[in-house]
Structures are given as C-alpha cells and as structure tokens.
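Thread title: Can someone regenerate the structure for this chain?

I was given the following input by a collaborator and told the matching structure tokens would be attached. They weren't. Posting the sequence so someone can regenerate them.
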Amino acid sequence: MLDLIEITGMKKQGKRNRKFCLVKCSYCGKTVEMRYDGYLASQSCGCLKAIKASKTALGLRTHKSSRTRPYRIWISMKDRCYNVKNKRYDRYGGRGISVCDEWKSDFVAFQQWALENGYDEKKTIDRIDNDKGYSPDNCRWATSKEQSRNRSTTLSVLYKGAYYSLAEVAELSGVPRDILSNRYRAGERGDRLVRPVGEDWTRMVGETNANAKITAEIALDIKQRLAKKETVVSIATSHGVSKYLVHDIKQGRTWKHITVDNTEVTD
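Best answer:
Regenerated them for you:
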C-alpha cells in the first residue's frame, strides 16, 4: 500500500503538465516521488512487480492463494492499517494499529500461522488486546460473538466480583440480554440488574434499605457537591463508592428525602 505524504507540485512530462506526489511504500518502506495518477492506481512503488519478476526468473512459484479467504483477510488487514483512504483507517492505522513485520510483506507466513492456530471459514481474525496491532501473539480466530465481547465499545458490568460483558452476564445469570440491556439503560446495577425475570423488586431507598452503602450525611454532601457541578467520578472517588450510586442520587432515583435546601437531614 502507498501512503501519501504530500503533493510536490506540477511537472512537465512530455507535452503535458502532470501532478506529482511524495509517497511511502508500506511494502518495502521506501519514500519515492511518483505521478499522482500513478499513486491512485498502484499498490506499491513498483517493488511488488520487481519481486514477482525475480521469483519468475529464478523459477520460483508464488503462493497462488490470491483468491482464497485468508488472502483477502490479509489484504484487508493491511489496508485498514496503512491506507488512509480506507473508511475504517481512523479506527486502525489512525490510532497506531499496525501489522507486524513477520506478516506485513509475507502472506505465506500469515497463512501458515492461520492454519496452525484455529482458522475456520466461520471465524474472523481478532486482536486480543484492542490497543495492540496484528501479530501472532495478539491475534486469534474468533466467532462474531466472541469478537463482540472483545470490542472496546462493549459494556463491562460487575457481576459477582468480576467484570463481564452483558452477553456473558446473560449467560451466567439466565436473564435474557435484551432485558439486561433495558435494565442497564434504566440505571439498574448489582442484584437489581440480574434479578430473575418477573420477580417483584420494590426499590428501597436511603436508610430504609438495610444494605445502604452510605449515611444520610454522606448523601447530603454528595447532593451539595453535585449542585456545585462537581463530577460524578470525583465525588464517588472521594467517598469510596460506586459512580453509579452517585449517578442514581443525581437522577433522583435514591435518597430523595435528602435535600440541599435543608440544613437538617430528615428521614
């Protein structure tokens, strides 16, 4: 792939003026100047043709896999990392995601890794750590369900002392995912989030709840600081409580009987 560095200007070529640009070839790493229309139509600075010609001259065969699914995956993987015109470039190359040297210019190496590490027609390549690039130690073959759990946009929910995605909590608790999603958006957390479907749950607020995490004085302090526009996270951190508790107080879901207008706290 060619990465455009800059437009260098117009130059006379034959009887016409042509636009030229400076590009960097992701295959060989060279920086070269070439015609702009050539840049738009080319995949490399010319090194790929040279490599192919040299292999042919030596009587060597190419991998002959250009029409296979692994090859398309390999090309797409590099394109979103190095082609600034790729619609997903900002989520990959734009934030520093790259392809390791072992795979970048050697499809055969990638293909061999794929076949030895669980490649399946129903699976796609997945990065284990979304902040790291494509390499043997950070990639796996995963189903769409497994990939969704690994996306940076997946919700992380506390369940029985550990964090899981909503899909995983649905499997562990037996509560359908769509119900969990609706409850989560409504601000429900903890045992209330994973309560069995159909179970009556009367919300207990403030000190009428035996499991209340804070006192009335702390609730008042939280409301006063919220009124001063202090962030939910900073308030939660200072009191050592969940940000969701502070958010529920802010939304009036709990500790409703505590008001910042009164200097006294009433039950």
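Residues 2-57 form one domain.
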